[in-house]
């Protein structure tokens, strides 16, 4: 970026006046959540500054800048020193907030460090890296909520392994199932969501390519410094060939098995080491896999949690009442109501997420080496998806922890159709006795009679087929029409589902590097706990005794 690109206007601390503030009034699911604070304008601004500071430190690490400059930029890169609203208004002239931010940061670091701010980078390098930082920090708060949800659902599934209930297909009673199997299915989706978000988190990369993805400017600056014979700002002699220090004389191995002899590759590796992000094989200005993967994983997570919520909403209806939220919400008009608010908020998130993910997927068709519009279209959907996912994960964890289960209602509903719920079993049992076609015809007629006359299925069978008692005893017929005796492999399937834990994900984030700068201490803490925890830890405690 040239000085002309940086734009003009107010500097740090000088505000054009307060702007509109989004406090979540229309977004109760994310209001007060970790995802909300992690994706707010202040958090985005800090991530932009962290990206700039990390780039200067990376350049110092490979000898392209003095270490004193890296310290000065890092010290100045504090969000509270800058006017986010002013930056937003000034961003309109250049199309992104990095341009005015670079101007303000340059002014804030002092004369000696100013030439090294944003040196060799382009706006997209910083904004992409910042959004990956925002995503990483937010996912580090979302994943524990998914662990909470999976843990609670594991306990619930084990407790209700053998609790029979009606299975429903196309809104109607089908055959019996168990509540444990239903809950095990919810948990399976939660683990699927966690696995996808964990994989996305592990692969979130830094962005560094320069103006058109070639990293050429960094080599040009090194060459210019070499010709100048000083450290670039005229304050002292060079201390190493092509560098501001001895680091570049012993190139390290870069990622992806490529020796780090190229200055650009060494800088890219150093940049990744400065942040809790991965080193990409290529600049990805128009190769938007990381954003598409992130968006897809978030949308899947919202949908997976939405399935849990959708079932709770149905099962908690007044006329069903097989489950209920422990502390549901009230109504402004009807004092008797206890609304399933948490499930409602999760379901709302699940309905919004797919359209946002579609925007990110459409940006895969970005043109040239850097796009106009496709990149810009991603910013807000990324933030919205993280907020929706974070809010849904938090509400789902609370929902799972407080869900009330009413087995007696499930038992009552098994008898609701007077035996029709086991017509499949009777068709199978009568087939060898009457022939398959005749047995099916008999069950069709008996089922209609049972409904029309309000009698039980076994009574209707005896009326339709008077000789049935000669083939089946009354006790055997009663057993065949008992719904609790027809849950199949549901308990065993539940056991198998509970043996599954989260899939381990190998982190792409370097485990080494310098101390974290101001504004990224939480990254180090989150990253450390994320890497240390065994993926099976959360579920070992929740698994039923027979599965431990």
Question: Could you walk me through the main structural features you see in this protein, from its secondary elements to its overall organization?
Answer:
The structure is a single chain. This protein is mainly alpha-helical. The chain is 55% helix and 3% strand. A hairpin with a 2-residue loop joins strand 1 (164-169) and strand 2. The longest helix has 37 residues, at 123-159.
- The portion of residues assigned to helices is 55-70%
Global morphology? elongated
In which order are the strands of the major sheet placed? 1-2
Q: Strand-and-helix sequence, N→C?
A: HHHHHHEEHHHHEHHEHHHHHHHHH
Distance between the termini: 58 Å
Short description:
The chain is mainly alpha-helical.
SSE layout:
Layout: H1 34-39, H2 41-61, H3 67-76, H4 84-94, H5 98-109, H6 123-159, E1 164-169, E2 172-178, H7 179-203, H8 216-228, H9 263-273, H10 289-315, E3 323-325, H11 341-362, H12 379-402, E4 403-405, H13 407-414, H14 423-434, H15 436-453, H16 457-464, H17 468-471, H18 474-480, H19 490-498, H20 521-532, H21 537-542
Antiparallel strand pairs: 1-2, 3-4
Helix pairs in contact: 2-3, 2-6, 2-9, 4-5, 6-7, 6-12, 6-20, 7-10, 7-19, 10-11, 10-12, 11-12, 14-15, 15-16
What descriptors fit this protein?
mainly alpha, disordered N terminus, 4 strands, disordered C terminus, 21 helices, two-stranded antiparallel sheet, 548 residues
């Amino acid at each position: 970026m040239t000085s002309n690109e940086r734009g003009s206007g107010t500097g740090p601390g000088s505000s054009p006046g307060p702007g509109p503030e989004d406090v979540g009034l229309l977004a109760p699911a994310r209001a007060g959540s970790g995802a909300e604070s992690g994706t707010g304008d202040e958090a985005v601004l800090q991530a932009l500054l962290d990206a700039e500071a990390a780039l200067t430190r990376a350049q110092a690490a490979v000898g392209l800048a003095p270490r004193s400059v890296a310290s000065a930029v890092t010290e100045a890169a504090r969000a509270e020193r800058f006017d986010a609203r002013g930056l937003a208004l000034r961003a309109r002239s250049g199309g992104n907030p990095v341009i005015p931010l670079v101007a303000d940061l340059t002014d804030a670091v002092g004369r000696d460090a100013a030439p090294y701010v944003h040196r060799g980078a382009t706006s997209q390098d910083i904004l992409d890296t910042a959004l990956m930082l925002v995503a990483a920090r937010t996912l580090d708060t979302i994943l524990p909520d998914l662990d909470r949800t999976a843990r609670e659902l594991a306990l619930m599934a084990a407790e209700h392994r053998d609790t029979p209930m009606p299975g429903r297909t196309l809104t109607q009673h089908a055959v019996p199932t168990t509540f444990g199997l239903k809950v095990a299915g919810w948990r399976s989706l939660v683990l699927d969501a966690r696995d996808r978000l964990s994989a996305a988190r592990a692969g979130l990369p830094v962005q560094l390519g320069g103006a058109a993805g070639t990293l050429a400017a960094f080599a040009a600056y090194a060459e210019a410094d070499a010709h100048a014979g000083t450290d670039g700002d005229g304050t002292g002699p060079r201390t190493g060939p092509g560098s501001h220090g001895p680091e570049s004389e012993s190139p390290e191995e870069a990622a992806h098995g490529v020796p780090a002899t190229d200055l650009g590759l060494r800088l890219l590796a150093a940049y990744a080491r400065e942040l809790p992000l991965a080193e990409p094989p290529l600049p990805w200005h128009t190769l938007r896999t990381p954003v598409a993967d992130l968006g897809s994983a978030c949308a899947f997570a919202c949908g997976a949690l939405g399935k849990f919520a959708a079932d709770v909403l149905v099962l908690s209806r007044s006329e069903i009442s097989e489950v209920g939220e422990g502390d549901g919400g009230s109504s402004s008009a009807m004092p008797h109501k206890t609304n399933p608010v948490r499930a409602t908020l999760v379901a709302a998130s699940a309905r919004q997420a797919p359209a946002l993910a579609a925007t990110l997927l459409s940006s895969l068709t970005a043109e040239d080496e850097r796009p106009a519009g496709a990149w810009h279209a991603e910013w807000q959907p990324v933030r919205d998806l993280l907020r929706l996912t974070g809010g849904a994960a938090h509400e789902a964890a609370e929902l799972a922890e407080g869900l009330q289960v009413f087995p007696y209602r499930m038992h009552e509903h098994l008898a609701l159709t007077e035996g029709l719920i086991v017509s499949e079993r009777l068709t199978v049992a009568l087939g060898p006795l009457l022939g398959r076609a005749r047995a099916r015809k008999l069950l069709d007629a008996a089922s209609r009679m049972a409904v029309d006359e309000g009698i039980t299925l076994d009574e209707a069978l005896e009326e339709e087929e008077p000789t049935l008692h000669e083939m089946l005893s009354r006790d055997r017929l009663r057993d065949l029409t008992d719904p609790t005796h027809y849950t199949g492999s549901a308990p065993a399937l539940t056991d198998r589902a509970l043996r599954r834990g989260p899939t381990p994900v190998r982190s792409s984030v370097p485990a080494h590097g310098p101390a974290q700068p101001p504004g990224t201490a939480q990254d180090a803490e989150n990253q450390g706990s994320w890497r240390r925890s065994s993926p099976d830890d959360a579920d070992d405690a929740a698994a039923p005794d027979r599965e431990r």
